[in-house]
Write a structure and sequence with these properties.
Blueprint (H helix, E strand, L loop, with lengths): L11 H20 L6 H18 L6 H8 L8 H15 L9 H11 L16 E3 L5 E4 L6 H14 L4 H15 L6 H16 L8 H7 L1 H14 L3 H46 L3 E2 H8 L3 H13 L3 E6 L2 E6 L2
Antiparallel strand pairs: 1-2, 3-5, 4-5
Helix pairs in contact: 1-11, 2-3, 2-4, 2-9, 5-8, 6-7, 7-8, 7-11, 10-11, 12-13
Length: 328
Amino acid sequence: MGNKKPPFEITNRMIDYVAEIAELLGKLNVTDTLSLNPTLRRSNRIRTIHGSLAIEQNTLSLEQVTAVLNGKHVLAPPKDIAEVKNAYEIYERLDELDPYSVDDLLTAHGIMTRGLVEESGMFRTRPVGVVDSEGHVLHFGTLPQYVPGLVMELLDWAKTSEVHMLIRSCVFHYELELIHPFADGNGRVGRLWHTLLLSQWNPAFAWLPVESIIHDRQQEYYDAINASNDAGESTVFIEFMLSAIKASLIEAINASNEMSAEKTDKATLRWNKIQEYLKTHDYIMNADVRELCGISAATANRLLAGLVAEDKLKKWRNSGHWAYKLTD
């Protein structure tokens, strides 16, 4: 075979998407609270896992997935619970994986399918027909004896190709599904690897995962795979994935902007209340701010310290307590 390039075309539409995605990532990184916000990161990670598994008919709701990962007891099929725990474990180790290593790919499959399939952490030994959710055979996977060689070739192409990573990762995702290297878990591993490749290019993708994007557009995902299978090349699939990534970035930026807008409004409201109070009082203290804004002592402290830093208030000791008044 030699290291031949998987069949796809680079279209003008793809180039537009790549440029738009790069620009959106720039906006996201400026406003991005993700890297600083572990709670948000964890909730995104949980959405990823729920998304990736729901695509594969896992019955757990987002709430149940959250409960399982918080160590709570959930009434659900043990298989579905095991899938959640396994998936979480491998996503938590994302940054330890080498996206071009066949051993890491097998390790990831082993963790993701641990205790769930007999050929866990190994390439399949039997031929398969790839079926959709209705049970129609979409195509026949590669014969098992050719699987290891084709996967290594694909990893090698992904490593050495000069095609933009946004496009390259989509090609990898599609070709891995086509080879169908595992008895089970191909979709989960393919989506994990897509996220892994993208997060090597831009770390934001560890938190903006391909899985939740696909889960929102599941039917289109299958349609794009089928259209690419019919065409004998992954062009349609790449265009679909890039459009989905672009849409999810727009959504993430809007959510992030709403969060900062809410924060700003809250701060403005509080400052207005303090100014009102100071019209009729010489000074204000932590306890007054607490009562005025309905916040804890710690929040009141932060708020006052911030206003002092912005030079809106100045503080002094007043009979053993800090008091604050408007700066002249």
